[in-house]
Amino acid sequence: MKTKYYFLFIPIGIVYLIGMFNDVMEVDASQYAAMSREMLESGNYLQLYDRGQNYLDKPPLLFWVSAMSFKLFGISNFSYKLPSVLFSLLGIFATARLGRRLYGEKAGFYAALILSSCQAWFMMNQDIRTDTILAACTIFAIWQLFIFMDEQKFIHLIFGAIGVAGAMLTKGPIGLMVPALSISFYLLVKRDWKNLFNWKWLLVPIIVAICISPFLYGLYQQYDLQPGKIIQGEPIQSGVKFYLWTQSFGRITGESVWKDDTTQLFFTHTFLWAFLPWCVLFVVALWRDTATLIKARLHLASGYTALTWGGFVFPFIAFSLSHYKLPHYIFVIFPLAAIASANFLDFLIENGSVLWQKRWKWIQLFVATLAYTLGILLCTWAFPMSNLFAWILTLTGVGAGLYFVWRGISPFEKIVLPSAIAIIVLNFLLNVHFYPTLFYFTTSNQAAKLVKADGGEKNFRTLNQVSYGLDVYAQRTVPNYGTVDELLQNSNNKTLWVYTNAQGHQEILARGLRILEDKKMEHFHISTLSMLFLNPKTRSKEIEYKHLLKIDTSIL
Fold first, then answer.
1. At a CB cut-off of 8 Å and minimum separation 6, what does 50 contact?
2. What's phi and psi for 235, nearest 5 deg?
């Protein structure tokens, strides 16, 4: 692969870096950042708490590394996101190395480029949840365990097991399920009985158990020794069982309390936008790989199709059968999708006919046009961008993409570069303008920053408004009270800062309290974007109002 093409990773990395300075997003990212700060403050790393209450929804690795980053670099957007972004880079590297080992150097490069530039990966490095670390640890584990099968070196078995443990410490047994399905299906299809029944595999669960044992011990102390604690309305008899079974597999069996009304096709249409601009490429690659497996009657003497196919398809089916689905649940298998896509792309560029290369050029141009159109609409119609420098960079990117479509020398320049440039431009616009504009409507973040700038965070309260963004940016757990009387009874300060909604504002006015400042702020739950909100003409119908009040209580 020509060295000059590796420079594509520079603008991708710059877009990641820009996103690291954006605010953390409500609800999940803000909650995880707030819990990491709380963990650092309490010094309790084995038992998880959310605003002082027992927490059982996620394992601790994200909280551990984020708390460590807070300790080293202080509490900020950048320090919260830094560990996860570093894991993300590890995931890209592991994907490249596995792709290279399976299909050659060019395929490895394509795999890294496809993964790092798909829409989901840009999102994962901006809106930090557990899935960034999960996906990275999972593909790292598969890569290392595959090398172990080839070379039989214990070091790779150990690294692979550590990768599995890291994934399990991030989101539970799904971190074991994906590598197990990928590796076992590959060995079954190859009829590699020697590797399949290798006694050394028994060391993997032992190493994993050692790595996750501190967390299991914490769960045992927090729940198993004190059964009956209520979590999400349900009594928990065993935290260990909940972690190892109910939270993951219980969503398929129906044991978990988490349920929604999504259909089995939810992840199908989710994948189409989340894997942009490479989704069409993968669909054809998956069809081709499926046909290969069927034609070979699930018996491949050589070739690695089964490794990526089994690691993608079986988890995808399991996720689709779950009673509760969110888009980011399938991001864990995107590295395998990237490798499968890279293999097909390598074939298309090196061995595809001129006619098929021309067809793919137009397919990818269509996808790139969608990305440009979306970015420009968001930054003109929805939220007009006045940053001249950003517009110059954007138009330069568009011009470069069009240049390669019409004047590109190689198939790579005509097929791949325009799509990669388009998705980079789109996410540059999102990180530089769109997301920062959205955070204007995340009033919890804005309110906490204003209070902290005034030095009043110790006198900060909320009235019927629990928000993790408040805790993150006030850098403390902001007390919440249900009534004005409770609010006043639990404060001895002359001056209070109070964050509340319109109803709470009216209650405070009715009490006759002296309001020194009243900041009325437009609020919207930006994690649930809608066309009504994006449309400037109908946005006001979607907005509610929050109030940040500075109150003088000395007259009471």
1. 31, 34, 35, 38
2. -75, 135
Burial of 265 (C-beta count, 10 Å sphere; 0-12/13-18/19+): exposed
Helix or strand run (H / E) with residue 178: helix 174-190
User: Residue 210: how many CA atoms within 13 Å on its side-chain side?
Assistant: 8
- Tokens for 250, please give them: 């219980």
27 prior amide bond cis, ω within 30: yes
Q: How far apart are CA 335 and CA 140, in angstroms?
A: 10
* Tokens representing residue 194 in the block: 């020697």
The pLDDT assigned to 556 comes to 53
- Quick one: DSSP state of residue 188? H
pLDDT score for 488: 85
For residue 323, give Cα distances in angstroms to 131, 242, 257, 261, 270.
19, 16, 9, 8, 16
- Please report, for residues 68, 389, 443, 462, the alpha-carbon distance to residue 471 in angstroms, rounded to integers and kept in the order given: 18, 34, 13, 11
The DSSP-derived string for 95-143 is: HHHHHHHHH-HHHHHHHHHHHHHSHHHHHHTTS--THHHHHHHHHHHHH
For the chain, state the CA radius of gyration.
25
How far is the C-alpha of 142 from the C-alpha of 360, rounded, in Å? 30
98/136 Cα distance (integer angstroms): 13
d(CA 95, CA 396): 30
Which pLDDT value is given to residue 161? 97
Q: What pLDDT is recorded for position 1?
A: 59
Alpha carbon distances (Å) from 4 to 94, 349, 355: 21, 17, 27
| C-alpha atoms less than 13 angstroms from C-alpha of 497 in its C-beta half-sphere | 20
Secondary element (H or E) of residue 229: strand 229-231
For residue 24, the 8-state DSSP code is: P
3-class SS letters over 306-345: HHHHHHHHHHHHHHHHCCCCCHHHHHHHHHHHHHHHHHHH
Q: Are strands 495-501 and 544-552 parallel, antiparallel or unpaired?
A: antiparallel
**Angle value at C-alpha 167, between 164 and 172, nearest 5 degrees:** 105
Coil, helix or strand at residue 230: strand
pTM (two decimals): 0.94
Nearest Cα residue to 332 out of 141, 67, 81:
141
What is the reported pLDDT for 301?
A: 67
Say what the pLDDT of residue 256 is: 58
- What is the number of other CB atoms lying within 10 angstroms of the CB of residue 137? 28
Instruction: For residues 479 and 460, give the distance between their C-alpha atoms in angstroms, rounded to a whole number.
Output: 8
pLDDT at 207 (0 to 100): 97
The low-confidence residues of the chain, meaning pLDDT below 70, are 1-2, 249-261, 301-302, 493, 554-556
pLDDT of residue 126: 92
Please tell me the distance from the alpha carbon of residue 9 to that of residue 459, in angstroms, as a whole number. 46
